[in-house]
Design a protein that fits this description.
Elements lengths: L11 H12 L13 H5 L3 H31 L4 H28 L2 H14 L1 H15 L8 H18 L1 H11 L5 H32 L2 H30 L5 H18 L13 H7 L39
Subunit structure: Tetramer of two alpha and two beta subunits.
EC number: 1.17.4.1
Enzyme class: oxidoreductase
Length: about 325
């Protein structure tokens, strides 16, 4: 048994991440999803189905990350302050998973929630295969003693889950909230994205140090091969998943560009160069994840997500300013 000393000057970066995680702490009860009911009732059936499907998939991935990914990575880690950060982030994965049930409790009957979370997720092949590929590396950490190579690859898998695989699910809520629709639920997703952003950044930072300090040149070469192999496999699964989930509402192309955009961001978290070419990402989605576009109350720190009246849906053309002359 060892005690941790938070009063030393060591591990300042880990302490910064710890503080940022605490500053971002939130729970789903603060968000009144009932504000979205008028938007929900005006959505087409295919739109509602897509919304429920993507949140269901996220629920499964978040739960597994909270139960397996973060705890196993932290268990074998050799830095107590960084272990504490991993433990906090594992807890927040369960807050994320519970948040989707919070949204469902307002929008859909409990019988439908039971079906999607108890049956649909279990039977959705791309979701299950995504987590099988990721958990392959997590399960390497179930051994009493593990290699630095296996620890590194588990962190790679974690970064790919949190900086990449989640984002095909995030797209639709962000797409809608960027247009001023389903704002309360979208605000929950924005909070989750803020969390996942620092989860991926922190894990990627630790992984880069492990790669540079603990892996031999041969192990680094093998790790690079396994890293790109895993991401290529996950991207192929995302392509199929995106087709199945989003084709009925004609967003599959936009989502796949967004997925590839985030695949490159995941590689950046690991100190790697971009790998995938893609068309420009929907400005509506980028607007939806830009926290500077939402007004916040200083004391409550909750977004001002009241839906304005007489909303006109935005399109990408609304963000084309090529015909506007700049003032000199």
């Amino acid at each position: 048994m060892k005690a941790i000393n938070w009063n030393t000057n060591a591990n300042q970066v880990a302490k910064i991440y710890w503080k940022q995680n605490l500053n971002q702490f939130w729970t789903e009860e603060a968000f009144k999803v009932s504000r979205d009911l008028s938007d929900w009732d005006n959505m087409l059936e295919d739109e509602q189905t897509t919304y429920v499907e993507v949140l269901s998939g996220l629920t499964g991935l978040d739960r597994e990350q909270g139960d397996e990914g973060m705890p196993l990575i932290g268990y074998h880690h050799d830095n107590m302050h960084e272990q504490a950060v991993f433990s906090w982030m594992a807890m927040m994965e369960h807050v994320h998973a519970k948040s989707y049930s919070h949204i469902f409790s307002t929008l859909i009957p409990s019988s439908k929630t039971d079906y999607y979370l108890g049956v649909w997720v279990d039977e959705q092949p791309e979701l299950q295969e995504k987590y099988r590929l990721i958990s392959y590396w997590y399960h390497k950490l179930l051994a009493p003693k593990v290699t630095s190579f296996d620890r590194y690859m588990a962190m790679v898998a974690s970064v790919f889950l949190e900086s990449f695989s989640f984002y095909s699910g995030f797209f639709y809520p962000v797409y809608l909230s960027g247009q001023g629709r389903m704002i309360a639920s979208g605000e929950i997703i924005r909070k989750i994205i803020q969390d996942e952003s620092i989860h991926g950044s922190f894990t990627g930072m630790v992984a880069q140090r492990l790669y540079n300090e603990d892996l031999t040149v041969a192990e680094q070469e093998q790790a690079d091969k396994e890293t790109y192999k895993l991401l290529d496999q996950l991207l192929e699964l995302e392509k199929t998943y995106t087709e199945k989930i989003y084709k009925k509402i004609n967003l599959e192309k936009d989502v796949y560009d967004y997925v590839k955009y985030n695949a490159n961001r995941a590689l950046q978290n690991l100190g790697k160069d971009d790998r995938y070419e893609h068309d420009p990402v929907s400005q509506i989605v980028l607007n939806g994840i830009d926290t500077s576009t939402v007004n916040h109350d200083f004391f409550s720190t909750k977004g001002d997500y009241v839906v304005p009246l007489n909303i006109e849906p935005l399109t990408d053309d609304d963000f084309d300013f090529s015909d506007v002359e700049l003032q000199k």
